[in-house]
Design a protein that fits this description.
By secondary structure, the chain is mainly alpha-helical. The chain has a single domain, classed as Ferritin (Up-down Bundle). The protein has 5 helices and no strands. The protein starts with a helix and ends in a 5-residue tail after the last helix. 31% of the residues are buried.
Length: 170
């Protein structure tokens, strides 16, 4: 049985996951309008994995006697300054999610909720991987150095390569 405090923090986490899914969906759509189709696929896929994170949390909260809530959210930005700007924004979002997971883990330890602590270990590992993954992409795009449409073409191509090599994480 979850305490009210843990239930609330898990619901807050659901909000973050829903927002992440929505943000990456919006980014995917924008990339599609820019004809950066690999980048669009990358974010569409990532939007789906964020939805899976949300679903896992919903199932856990309800199974443990709480009530998972679906939040009302502000719409994410519809367009972005550039490919780099969107990727940086995604990386910052992942950092925020990692921090939030860490805070719930700390709360679980402080309140001796070892069941939720164990449940969250999957998220700890997942976040570490995701943040590292986004950081690697941002670094790669910086290395390519987008100065014109040719650079943009190669950057999108590099993102496509990443999709091939890490399909489960894109
Ligand atoms: Fe589910 Fe990328 O946070």
């Amino acid at each position: 049985m979850l305490t009210k405090k843990i239930e609330k923090t898990l619901n807050d986490q659901i909000t973050l996951e829903v927002y992440s899914s929505s943000l990456y969906l919006a980014m995917g759509s924008w990339f599609e309008t820019q004809r950066l189709l690999n980048s669009a696929q990358f974010f569409y896929r990532h939007s789906t994995s964020e939805r899976e994170h949300m679903m896992k949390l919903i199932a856990y909260v309800n199974r443990e006697g709480g009530h998972a809530r679906v939040p009302e959210l502000a719409a994410p930005p519809a367009s972005y300054k550039s490919l780099e700007a969107a990727l940086e924004m995604a990386l910052e979002n992942e950092k925020k999610v990692t921090k939030a997971i860490g805070a719930i883990v700390e709360l679980c330890l402080a309140t001796k909720d070892y069941g939720t602590f164990t449940f969250l270990q999957w998220y700890v590992a997942e976040q570490q991987e995701e943040e590292g993954y986004f950081q690697a992409i941002v670094d790669k795009i910086k290395m390519i150095g987008i100065k014109d449409s040719r650079g943009l073409f190669f950057a999108d191509k590099a993102i496509g390569k990443l999709l091939e090599t890490a399909p489960s994480k894109a």
